[in-house]
Amino acid sequence: MAEVLSPGERLWAVDKLILTYLAFTGLLIAFFGNRLPNSKELLALHLAGAALIVLAARRKGRASWIFRHWYPLPYVASLYKEMAILIPAVRHTSADQWLARLDFRIWGANPTVWLERIQSRPLTEFLQLVYTLFVPVVLLIAWLIWKRGRYVEFRYYAFLIALGFLASYIGYLLVPARGPRFLLRDLQHTPLRGLWLFSGMQTALDRLESAHYDCFPSGHTELTILAWWSSQQISSRLFWVYFSYTLGIIFATVYLRYHYTIDLLAGALLALVLVIGAPAIYQKLSGERDRVGRN
Question: What is the rounded CA–CA span in Å between residue 84 and residue 87?
Answer without folding.
Answer: 6
